[in-house]
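Final report, section 2: Outcomes. Of the targets proposed, Amino acid ABC transporter permease is the one most frequently requested by collaborating groups, and we therefore present its record in full.
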Amino acid sequence: MSTKTIGSPTRSRPVPELLPEEKKRITPKRPRDYLCWAVAIAIVGGLVHTTVTNENYQWPVVFSYFTTEAILDGLVLTLVLTVASMVLGTLLGLVLAVMRMSHQAPISGLARLYITFFRGTPVLVQLIFWFNIAALYPNVSIGIPFTDISTPVDVNALMTPLTAAIVGLTLNQAAYMAEIIRGGFASVNRGQHEAADSLGMSGFTRLRHVIIPQTMPAIIPATGNQVIGMLKETSLVSVLGVAELLNSAQSIYARTYQTIPLLIVASLWYLIMTMALSVPQSMIERRFSRSTRRPAPVAVATKESLL
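The predicted structure is given below as tokens.
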């Protein structure tokens, strides 16, 4: 947005002037616009009508199970899995992104191998693999290298369904977050790195105070989408027997044979949580997008400038 001045030279004030892309174009309605609205309203109306009038949906059953204790417990566990996997996956993804951008070929190669493997295999396969990892390593020893100090660990007892779910989701999420963070790092101008070097900043200080703050506008939108995706991917851990939202619904309709109503309950809760997460995501995106816009200089005409 630029500015222009009005009034006398001695007493002038800036008046904001909209840029061409900020001005709304007013176009007259055409017949096809009304036709599109009519078709959209007809489709939505038909869906609402069949949803309300079709008794096979069993809406009374849906409402009766919507806030039951088992469903709410599964809802809480779903949120815990989402938060834990995203936090741990983001931290590990940051480490992988730094490794991926390293000039040392072995370090960069290890990070690239990790990202390729976990992005190239399905999440469900990874979850089942970690749940059955004891078939490969039934016992491991954790200790101090080059000493006799070690502690044997029973992997079968350690890798519970919940532990396998967190490990599998975290490791998979780290691969995607590493690429998102690396893309954010690549968006920082090379001159910023050179300026940090000229100030004598260490690698960690440069990363913390120069690089990461400037990567946030590029990272936040993609990270928000990953959070929403992770929320829905937690439904996959139901195959491990973890009592999250979908598994809780499955355990109920396995007893009552009311499959469709319980699936509707789970779907509605996923939809509500997704919409709830979209609101702060949009607010954060708008905040960072405003911070990256530099206000145009205000041109104020003065008596001296006109002489």
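The longest strand covers residues 2-7.
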